[in-house]
Amino acid sequence: MNLPESGAKPPTSADVARVAGVSRSTVSYVLNSPPGARVSAETRERVLKAVRELGYAPSAPARSLRSGSSDIVLFPLPLQPMGQLLEQFVDEFTEALRRQDLNLLIHGDRYARGVDAARTWAALRPLAVLAESNRLTDGGVEVLRRAGVRAIFAWGREEHPGVPTAIFDNRDSGALAIRHLIGRGHRRMACLVPAGPLAGLANERWEGAKSAAEEAGCSLERVDVGYVREDILAVVRGWQRQTEPPTAVFAGNDDFALMIISALRECGWSVPDDMAVVGADDLPFCDLVWPRLTSVAMHTRTMGSGAADMVTALMTGRPYKHRDHMVVHPRVVVRESG
Fold first, then answer.
1. Residue 335 in contact with residue 293, Cβ under 8 Å?
2. Strands (E), the chain
3. What's the whole-number mean pLDDT along residues 3-11?
4. In this predicted model, what pLDDT tens digit does every residue of 232-259 receive, in sequence order?
5. Containing domain of residue 132, as a range?
6. In whole angstroms, what is the distance from residue 85 CA to residue 107 CA?
């Protein structure tokens, strides 16, 4: 094989053309046209064989400059970490884009917003941008459109005027968890509010949980905790000293739900007989523990495929109208823990 030596310059389309015995324009045509394009099967195979032998990879920036567009969908990381929920969404979004020959590029700056952020994103020449609605401004959207970004859409708890938006609110998850527990007959409940990187997410879920409890006239204790086993044990021991402790707990997320279940067992209480437990995010391990964990799911597959559909619709000239905002509703996946 004619692989370049370590430290050598990467192969170019001219190298591919030389090895395949064709012109550079033919190489470009083969690599940038669909399989059914008008080029002989023999020529296509010679070019693809040369590509494999040389280890040639087309330059995405150069291809973008030539064509005036790219296959890049830019996803700036959100200001607020979302843990495994974000990982699930990114996986589903990437998979859905790949089926349409598009690539997801994650941008690591969590803090830039408005025009400054838009200029940074536009410099990468993406085909589309999916960003938090609170990071997009009218001026920023205009910068992206002038730069040739063909699809701009947002996600977050509120829609961005004039930009298609995937709307979901973490407060809904908290409210739904508490309504589920109330429906199971619980009137004295607790809500864990984890500290650390996910504190913002936890507080939003607490707000929703508190609102649902107040509407139903039920008691809901806020419990601020760190990601430390001793903290969780101290909480459970405190409940055991109460005359009327909570009968159910919304743990804020699935990780803390496992921690609280472990602490309850260590202190001699059973789940769900002594205390029901509900998590959030519906991570894969919810089905692997015992009792299996009831959890609030956010439909990341729906979110990922829906966002990819928005990209392709806008790419093909089918603009999403205001009424086409995608609202993502959570649901409770009921299992044995509560």
1. yes
2. 72-76, 103-107, 128-132, 151-156, 165-167, 188-194, 219-225, 248-250, 276-280, 294-297, 326-327, 331-333
3. 61
4. 999 999 999 999 999 999 999 999 999 9
5. 70-168+301-328
6. 18
Six-digit token pair at 86? 């974000």
Q: What is the pLDDT averaged over residues 309-333?
A: 69
Q: Name, in order, each residue with C-beta under 8 angstroms of 224's C-beta and a sequence gap of 6 or more.
A: 193, 195
Residue 4 lies in a domain: no
Report DSSP state, residue 226: -
79: DSSP letter:
S
List of residues 6+ apart from 249 with CB closer than 8 A: 189, 190, 191, 192, 223, 260, 275, 276, 277, 278
Tally of residues, the chain: 338
**Residue 288, domain member (yes or no):** yes
Cα separation of 26 and 7, whole Å?
A: 28
Residue pair 300/85 in contact (Cβ under 8 Å)? The answer is yes
User: 32 pLDDT exceeds 80?
Assistant: no
In this structure, are residues 8 and 55 in contact, taking their beta carbons and an 8 Å threshold?
no
Q: Is the pTM of this model over 0.85?
A: no
* CA dihedral for 224, 227, 230, 236, sign (positive or negative): positive
Provide the domain count of the chain: 3
The pair of structure tokens assigned to 87 is 């990982």
CATH number of the domain to which 158 belongs: 3.40.50.2300
Type of residue at 18: R
| DSSP annotation string for 248-267 | EEE-SSHHHHHHHHHHHHHT
Task: Give pLDDT, residue 301.
Answer: 61
The single residue listed with the structure tokens 């107040």 is: 214
Largest CA distance in the chain: 86
- The letter for the amino acid at 166 is A
322 pLDDT above the threshold of 50: no
- Give the C-alpha separation, 58 to 303, whole Å: 31
The lowest-confidence range among 54-68, 122-136, 168-182 is 54-68
Q: Would 2 be classed as within a structural domain?
A: no
Phi-psi region of 86 (alpha: psi -120 to 50; beta: other; left: phi over 0): alpha
Cα angle: 172, vertex 219, 235; to 5 degrees: 90
Residues 91 and 104 in one domain: yes
